[in-house]
Structure formats: C-alpha cells, structure tokens
Amino acid sequence: MPRHSLLREAGMMIRAFVALILPDEVCDQLAGLQAELPAGRIVPRENLHVTLAFIGRQPEPLLAELDLTLAAIAAPALSLRIEGVGGFGPGPRPRSIHAVLRPDPALDGLRRKVENAARGLGIALPARRFVPHVTLARPRAGRVDPPRLERALAAAMDFRLGPFTVHAFALYQSLPGREGPVYEVLASYPLGRDGAAPIPC
Is the confidence at residue 49, as pLDDT, over 60? Predict the structure, then answer.
C-alpha cells in the first residue's frame, strides 16, 4: 500500500477497520450533541465515523491487497439521516452511546461490497448484525450518574440531522492512545463516480 507511509514496513501488524468519512458539518453538529451528554469518555470529533467492517489485526501485505480490492468498489454517494440516539448495553448503564442512522439500502449495499472484499481475501469478519451508527461516548462505570444520563438520552431522542451526503469511505488504522484509540486514514475511496481512483489522503 504505497499511498501511506504508515504501511512501508513489511510484516507490520495493523489493527484496521473500514468506515464512512463523515462531512465536517455533520461532525460539528454531533460534537454539539456530545456536549449535552454527561457520559464520561466522549469520542473525539476527529474519531467520529460509521463503521462498515471491522478488519481486526492483519499483516501489512494483506491490507495492501485489501486496499486494491476496496479501490475497485463502485458505489453511489450516500444520502443519510441521523434520527435520535441509542445505546449498546443494558438499561440505564449502556457501554456506549451512539447517534442512530436511518436504515438505507445504498448504505447496506456498500457494506456488503466491503465485507465481500474482505472475505474474498480470507479475512474473518465478526458475525454481528449491522446497526449503522456513530459512536458518541463510552460511559465509565462509577463516573456517570445513571438518572442524569437517562434524562439526557431521553432529551436527545428528538435529535435529527440530514439528509447529508457522504462522498467517500476509508480504510482506517486504530492506534492505542492514552485517552483511548486514535484513528488514522490509511487510504480513502470515492463514492458517486465511475472507476475507483482513490482520493489522496
């Protein structure tokens, strides 16, 4: 994968995922929503994304092959909407809080193409139902008042955003950081035009 200097070292293992690149104005509005959530660890604005496939730890040569396969995907630009918030986990103590994306056939089609590209290279993907979302926060046990969080989530249920257009998706690297993971784009791919020339990172 010659387009990114992080992948120059042969044999390097990289924790990776594929996700939509959200427009700046969407990230700005989601950051405003985050400010209303008493939820402990807030996801940094630059980490906001919509996961299409979790690739896991893979050797650099395999990710280089995946890059070429993803670059061959042709799919339309996506018109998406966010409708409220949700949580993964039990009751008033969810392990994560997210913005809910309205189901969209084109989004689901892109996800299937990405998954097929990965599986075609022998990458085992987690068997989980696709729930399109943008993770906003990960509450920390003992540091969040459940009733206060429950009230904030109830108020945020009316949050609406869109339609907005997504023009690209990307192969990301996940790096450990002191305050949580740091995500870096390894390569990005355009939506909404024929061909598959990658967008320079």
Answer: yes
pLDDT at 111: 97
Cα-Cα end-to-end distance for the chain: 12
3-class secondary structure, 193 = coil
9 class by beta-carbon count within 10 Å (0-12 exposed, 13-18 middle, 19+ buried): exposed
Strands 133-138 and 78-88: unpaired
Within the chain, strands assigned E span: 13-20, 41-42, 50-59, 78-88, 96-101, 133-138, 160-166, 168-175, 182-190
List pLDDT tens digits, range 131-142.
999 999 988 766
pLDDT tens, 63-116? 999 999 999 999 999 999 999 998 887 666 788 899 999 999 999 999 999 999
Q: What is the mean pLDDT of residues 139-148?
A: 73
pTM of the model: 0.87
Q: Residue 8 and residue 177: Cα distance in Å, rounded?
A: 21
- Residues with Cβ within 8 Å of residue 66, at least 6 apart in sequence: 16, 55, 58, 117, 118, 121, 123, 171
- How many whole angstroms separate alpha carbon 21 and alpha carbon 82? 15
Separation of alpha carbons 45 and 135, rounded Å:
10
- Tell me the residue type at 130: F
Alpha carbon 73 to chain centroid, angstroms: 18
CATH fold label, 12-190? Cyclic Phosphodiesterase; Chain: A, (3.90.1140)
